[in-house]
Amino acid sequence: MSLFGVRRHPGMALLSARGHLPGFDGATGWLNSSPLTPEGLRGKVVLVDFWTYTCINWLRTLAFVRAWSEKYAEQGLVVVGVHTPEFPFEGEIDNVRQAAKDMKVEYPIAVDSDYAVWRAFTNMYWPAVYLADADGRIRYHHFGEGAYDECEWMVQELLREAGSVGVADDLVSLVPGGFEAQADWANLESPETYLGYEQAQNFAGMDFPIQSLKLNNWALSGDWMVEPGATVLNQAGGGIAFRFHARDVHLVLSPRSRGASVPFRVLLDGEPPAAAHGLDVDGQGNGIVTRPRLYQLIRVPGTIADRTVEITFLEPGVEAYVFTFG
After folding, report:
1. Among 180, 200, 222, where does a domain finish?
2. Do residues 165 and 216 share a domain?
3. Contact, 136 vs 44, CB < 8 A?
4. How far apart are CA 11 and CA 227, in angstroms?
5. Predicted model pTM
């Protein structure tokens, strides 16, 4: 379980070794670095961060991982981001390269499009952090968000153990913004919700009356094709409505054809979102899908309550994958 908002010092008792760093032999490519190996990393403390670029849970950890990479690089920490895709388009290296540039992921990235590194670590989660000591032994791991203080304390202790001098006790102090802003956990009552039929849940139906949606139910209007991993719009004017309780509403979207763009309009409780618009929408609710990525539709200021978001696409050819909330 993640430790949200909890400061807990692990003390001097580091975890015992949990096997050696498996390595990255199965990576299909590298960004920001030539290929790295456990042998070449010997003597360094290594933080391996499993991510996929549309994952809001990972995005909310990025500011911390980035800050640790910058703060401790000269003292012997190497951060390796392992990008293992959840959706097919995330397996395309050009999309990963663009996402890394947009998100300022400047440490080495092992592109793991075939899941070989994922399997070598027997990993099951995004995000997941593994810490290896200077001898290549995995000494700590954490799955999911939170535990930032604990993880940084572990980095500090492993650096000291490796002989690094001058490792301070202070921790990074961050208030991330944008996609990296921490969720409003006290008011988050809507779960991650997939729209493809393999994982879909809480689907109210086609052309279901929006005013009758129950909390965390969603509906489609128009001409859609529901595929295993996504719902695809066949004709212009189709929409998706979701009854939610959260500060933020995100939706993973992609144009069906490379290079295409699909404009859309967002309403909140039947009106333009105004001050509640997200990063990818203006106050009138206008947005456009240009690349396969996570889009932020709504960020509600002030009091959080049950609300209904509607997204209408003005052109066909959009793929909708998953709603996430914050």
Report:
1. 180
2. no
3. no
4. 50
5. 0.93
